[in-house]
Amino acid sequence: MLVLYHATPSVASAKARLVLHEKHLSWQDEILDLQRGDQHRPDYRALNPGAVVPTLVHDGQVITESTLIMEYLDEVFPTPPLMPSEPYSRAVARQWMKKIDDYLHGACATLTFALAFRRFLLKKTPAELEARFRAIQDVTVREARRLAVIHGIAAPHVPPALQHYDKYIGEMEEALSRLPYLAGDAYSLADAAVTPYVYRAEMLGLDRLWLDGRPHVVSWLQRVRARPSFDRAITGVLTDIDKERLSVARDETWPVVRGILLDDSSR
Fold this sequence. Notes:
Elements: E1 2-6, H1 11-22, E2 28-31, H2 42-47, E3 55-58, E4 61-64, H3 66-76, H4 87-121, H5 126-134, H6 139-151, H7 158-176, H8 189-203, H9 208-211, H10 215-225, H11 228-235, H12 240-246, H13 250-265
Parallel strand pairs: 1-2
Antiparallel strand pairs: 1-3, 3-4
Helix pairs in contact: 1-3, 1-8, 1-11, 4-6, 4-7, 4-8, 7-10, 7-13
Protein backbone atom coordinates (compact mmCIF):
# COMPACT_ATOMS: atom_id res chain seq x y z
CA MET A 1 0.00 0.00 0.00
CA LEU A 2 1.22 3.47 -0.92
CA VAL A 3 0.36 6.50 1.20
CA LEU A 4 1.47 9.97 0.13
CA TYR A 5 1.47 12.79 2.66
CA HIS A 6 1.57 15.97 0.61
CA ALA A 7 0.32 19.53 0.20
CA THR A 8 -1.59 20.68 -2.86
CA PRO A 9 0.52 23.81 -3.62
CA SER A 10 3.89 22.26 -2.73
CA VAL A 11 6.32 21.97 -5.67
CA ALA A 12 8.13 19.11 -3.93
CA SER A 13 4.83 17.27 -3.47
CA ALA A 14 4.02 17.79 -7.15
CA LYS A 15 7.23 15.96 -8.10
CA ALA A 16 6.05 12.85 -6.26
CA ARG A 17 2.51 13.13 -7.62
CA LEU A 18 3.82 13.36 -11.20
CA VAL A 19 5.72 10.09 -10.84
CA LEU A 20 2.77 8.33 -9.22
CA HIS A 21 0.55 9.37 -12.12
CA GLU A 22 3.16 8.57 -14.77
CA LYS A 23 3.40 5.09 -13.25
CA HIS A 24 -0.42 4.75 -13.15
CA LEU A 25 -0.23 3.83 -9.48
CA SER A 26 -2.96 3.95 -6.88
CA TRP A 27 -2.26 5.50 -3.51
CA GLN A 28 -3.94 6.84 -0.41
CA ASP A 29 -4.08 10.63 -0.21
CA GLU A 30 -3.10 12.34 3.04
CA ILE A 31 -3.29 16.08 2.31
CA LEU A 32 -1.66 18.46 4.78
CA ASP A 33 -2.65 22.11 5.08
CA LEU A 34 0.68 23.90 5.50
CA GLN A 35 -1.02 27.22 6.24
CA ARG A 36 -2.77 25.59 9.18
CA GLY A 37 0.47 23.99 10.33
CA ASP A 38 -0.44 20.33 9.77
CA GLN A 39 3.22 19.57 9.05
CA HIS A 40 3.96 20.24 12.73
CA ARG A 41 1.45 17.70 14.06
CA PRO A 42 3.16 15.15 16.34
CA ASP A 43 1.91 12.22 14.26
CA TYR A 44 3.38 13.71 11.10
CA ARG A 45 6.62 14.76 12.78
CA ALA A 46 7.02 11.11 13.83
CA LEU A 47 7.14 10.24 10.12
CA ASN A 48 9.05 13.31 8.94
CA PRO A 49 11.03 15.01 11.74
CA GLY A 50 11.89 17.86 9.36
CA ALA A 51 8.19 18.76 9.13
CA VAL A 52 8.30 19.10 5.34
CA VAL A 53 6.36 17.47 2.53
CA PRO A 54 6.12 15.06 0.85
CA THR A 55 6.45 11.81 2.75
CA LEU A 56 5.79 8.44 1.14
CA VAL A 57 4.87 5.36 3.18
CA HIS A 58 5.08 2.10 1.26
CA ASP A 59 3.92 -0.98 3.16
CA GLY A 60 4.96 0.68 6.41
CA GLN A 61 8.34 1.88 5.15
CA VAL A 62 8.85 5.64 5.26
CA ILE A 63 10.66 7.57 2.52
CA THR A 64 11.22 11.32 2.76
CA GLU A 65 12.78 13.90 0.41
CA SER A 66 11.04 14.35 -2.94
CA THR A 67 13.98 13.37 -5.15
CA LEU A 68 14.51 10.15 -3.20
CA ILE A 69 10.79 9.41 -3.41
CA MET A 70 10.88 9.82 -7.18
CA GLU A 71 13.85 7.49 -7.56
CA TYR A 72 12.36 4.97 -5.13
CA LEU A 73 9.09 4.80 -7.08
CA ASP A 74 10.95 4.34 -10.36
CA GLU A 75 12.99 1.47 -8.93
CA VAL A 76 10.15 -0.32 -7.14
CA PHE A 77 7.66 0.16 -9.97
CA PRO A 78 9.86 -0.05 -13.08
CA THR A 79 7.08 0.13 -15.69
CA PRO A 80 7.00 2.47 -17.46
CA PRO A 81 10.65 3.40 -16.83
CA LEU A 82 11.35 7.05 -16.05
CA MET A 83 15.11 6.91 -16.24
CA PRO A 84 17.17 6.40 -19.41
CA SER A 85 18.68 2.96 -19.96
CA GLU A 86 22.12 4.34 -20.87
CA PRO A 87 24.36 5.14 -17.86
CA TYR A 88 25.54 8.54 -19.08
CA SER A 89 21.98 9.72 -19.74
CA ARG A 90 20.97 8.54 -16.27
CA ALA A 91 23.79 10.63 -14.85
CA VAL A 92 22.55 13.63 -16.85
CA ALA A 93 19.05 13.17 -15.43
CA ARG A 94 20.41 13.00 -11.89
CA GLN A 95 22.49 16.13 -12.49
CA TRP A 96 19.34 18.08 -13.40
CA MET A 97 17.68 16.83 -10.21
CA LYS A 98 20.74 17.61 -8.10
CA LYS A 99 20.76 21.22 -9.30
CA ILE A 100 17.14 21.52 -8.19
CA ASP A 101 18.08 20.29 -4.72
CA ASP A 102 21.24 22.41 -4.67
CA TYR A 103 19.72 25.77 -5.55
CA LEU A 104 16.49 25.89 -7.59
CA HIS A 105 14.23 24.69 -4.78
CA GLY A 106 15.56 27.36 -2.44
CA ALA A 107 15.18 29.99 -5.15
CA CYS A 108 11.59 28.91 -5.72
CA ALA A 109 10.77 29.20 -2.02
CA THR A 110 12.34 32.66 -1.84
CA LEU A 111 10.39 33.96 -4.83
CA THR A 112 7.14 32.35 -3.70
CA PHE A 113 7.33 34.07 -0.33
CA ALA A 114 8.59 37.40 -1.69
CA LEU A 115 6.12 37.68 -4.57
CA ALA A 116 3.04 35.74 -3.52
CA PHE A 117 2.73 34.59 0.08
CA ARG A 118 3.77 37.91 1.63
CA ARG A 119 0.54 39.52 0.40
CA PHE A 120 -1.43 37.24 2.69
CA LEU A 121 1.05 36.86 5.53
CA LEU A 122 1.27 40.62 6.03
CA LYS A 123 -2.45 40.59 6.84
CA LYS A 124 -1.66 38.66 10.02
CA THR A 125 -1.00 40.39 13.31
CA PRO A 126 2.67 40.77 14.28
CA ALA A 127 2.19 38.10 16.95
CA GLU A 128 0.64 35.66 14.48
CA LEU A 129 3.40 36.30 11.97
CA GLU A 130 6.11 35.81 14.56
CA ALA A 131 4.52 32.55 15.73
CA ARG A 132 4.60 31.31 12.16
CA PHE A 133 8.28 32.16 11.80
CA ARG A 134 9.13 30.55 15.15
CA ALA A 135 7.65 27.27 13.96
CA ILE A 136 10.38 27.02 11.28
CA GLN A 137 13.18 25.03 12.89
CA ASP A 138 15.98 25.87 10.47
CA VAL A 139 17.24 29.31 11.50
CA THR A 140 18.61 30.11 8.04
CA VAL A 141 15.30 29.25 6.36
CA ARG A 142 13.38 31.13 9.04
CA GLU A 143 15.30 34.36 8.56
CA ALA A 144 15.23 34.10 4.77
CA ARG A 145 11.45 33.81 4.82
CA ARG A 146 11.15 36.62 7.32
CA LEU A 147 13.14 38.92 5.03
CA ALA A 148 11.15 37.85 1.98
CA VAL A 149 7.85 38.57 3.71
CA ILE A 150 8.92 41.91 5.17
CA HIS A 151 10.80 43.31 2.16
CA GLY A 152 9.29 41.43 -0.78
CA ILE A 153 11.21 41.76 -4.03
CA ALA A 154 13.58 44.20 -2.33
CA ALA A 155 14.86 41.49 0.04
CA PRO A 156 18.61 40.95 -0.44
CA HIS A 157 18.32 37.28 -1.36
CA VAL A 158 15.72 37.83 -4.09
CA PRO A 159 18.20 38.84 -6.85
CA PRO A 160 20.32 35.67 -6.39
CA ALA A 161 17.13 33.60 -6.46
CA LEU A 162 16.11 35.20 -9.76
CA GLN A 163 19.58 34.63 -11.15
CA HIS A 164 19.43 30.95 -10.17
CA TYR A 165 16.12 30.56 -11.98
CA ASP A 166 17.44 32.35 -15.05
CA LYS A 167 20.57 30.19 -15.04
CA TYR A 168 18.65 26.93 -14.75
CA ILE A 169 16.18 27.82 -17.51
CA GLY A 170 19.05 29.01 -19.69
CA GLU A 171 20.74 25.64 -19.27
CA MET A 172 17.45 23.93 -20.11
CA GLU A 173 17.27 25.93 -23.36
CA GLU A 174 20.75 24.82 -24.36
CA ALA A 175 20.03 21.14 -23.62
CA LEU A 176 16.61 21.19 -25.25
CA SER A 177 18.07 22.67 -28.43
CA ARG A 178 19.62 19.23 -28.97
CA LEU A 179 17.09 16.87 -27.38
CA PRO A 180 13.31 16.85 -26.88
CA TYR A 181 13.65 16.13 -23.16
CA LEU A 182 16.28 17.01 -20.59
CA ALA A 183 18.00 13.63 -20.48
CA GLY A 184 17.30 12.30 -23.97
CA ASP A 185 14.56 11.37 -26.36
CA ALA A 186 12.08 10.31 -23.68
CA TYR A 187 10.41 11.97 -20.70
CA SER A 188 12.31 11.16 -17.51
CA LEU A 189 12.49 11.94 -13.81
CA ALA A 190 14.50 15.03 -14.75
CA ASP A 191 11.53 16.48 -16.64
CA ALA A 192 9.11 15.51 -13.88
CA ALA A 193 11.38 17.08 -11.27
CA VAL A 194 11.65 20.50 -12.89
CA THR A 195 8.08 20.80 -14.21
CA PRO A 196 6.56 22.09 -10.93
CA TYR A 197 9.26 24.77 -10.66
CA VAL A 198 8.66 26.05 -14.18
CA TYR A 199 4.92 26.10 -13.57
CA ARG A 200 5.44 27.93 -10.26
CA ALA A 201 7.48 30.58 -12.08
CA GLU A 202 4.62 30.98 -14.53
CA MET A 203 2.15 31.48 -11.67
CA LEU A 204 4.46 34.10 -10.14
CA GLY A 205 4.44 36.11 -13.37
CA LEU A 206 7.95 35.06 -14.39
CA ASP A 207 7.16 33.22 -17.62
CA ARG A 208 9.09 35.73 -19.70
CA LEU A 209 12.18 33.92 -18.43
CA TRP A 210 11.46 31.53 -21.32
CA LEU A 211 8.95 33.38 -23.49
CA ASP A 212 11.60 35.99 -24.33
CA GLY A 213 14.08 34.11 -26.49
CA ARG A 214 14.04 30.53 -25.21
CA PRO A 215 11.83 28.74 -27.75
CA HIS A 216 13.04 25.24 -26.91
CA VAL A 217 11.86 25.62 -23.31
CA VAL A 218 8.52 26.87 -24.66
CA SER A 219 8.18 23.76 -26.86
CA TRP A 220 9.26 21.46 -24.01
CA LEU A 221 6.66 22.96 -21.71
CA GLN A 222 3.96 22.45 -24.33
CA ARG A 223 4.92 18.76 -24.57
CA VAL A 224 4.98 18.36 -20.80
CA ARG A 225 1.63 20.10 -20.32
CA ALA A 226 0.05 17.77 -22.90
CA ARG A 227 0.81 14.74 -20.73
CA PRO A 228 -2.18 13.60 -18.64
CA SER A 229 -0.01 13.63 -15.52
CA PHE A 230 0.36 17.42 -15.67
CA ASP A 231 -3.27 18.17 -14.94
CA ARG A 232 -3.69 15.25 -12.56
CA ALA A 233 -0.62 16.09 -10.48
CA ILE A 234 -0.46 19.88 -10.73
CA THR A 235 -3.24 22.04 -12.16
CA GLY A 236 -6.08 19.68 -11.24
CA VAL A 237 -4.88 19.44 -7.64
CA LEU A 238 -4.61 23.16 -6.87
CA THR A 239 -7.55 24.56 -4.94
CA ASP A 240 -9.09 27.96 -5.64
CA ILE A 241 -7.34 29.23 -2.50
CA ASP A 242 -3.99 27.89 -3.76
CA LYS A 243 -4.49 29.68 -7.07
CA GLU A 244 -5.40 32.92 -5.33
CA ARG A 245 -2.34 32.75 -3.08
CA LEU A 246 0.12 31.87 -5.84
CA SER A 247 -1.07 33.85 -8.85
CA VAL A 248 0.81 37.08 -9.44
CA ALA A 249 0.19 39.25 -12.49
CA ARG A 250 3.20 39.48 -14.78
CA ASP A 251 2.91 43.27 -14.89
CA GLU A 252 3.36 43.38 -11.11
CA THR A 253 6.71 41.63 -11.14
CA TRP A 254 8.38 41.53 -14.52
CA PRO A 255 9.55 45.16 -14.86
CA VAL A 256 11.46 44.92 -11.57
CA VAL A 257 12.66 41.38 -12.29
CA ARG A 258 13.90 42.37 -15.72
CA GLY A 259 15.83 45.26 -14.18
CA ILE A 260 17.48 42.94 -11.67
CA LEU A 261 18.50 40.44 -14.36
CA LEU A 262 19.76 43.15 -16.72
CA ASP A 263 21.78 44.71 -13.93
CA ASP A 264 23.39 41.36 -13.18
CA SER A 265 24.20 40.65 -16.84
CA SER A 266 25.96 43.99 -17.23
CA ARG A 267 28.52 43.23 -14.54
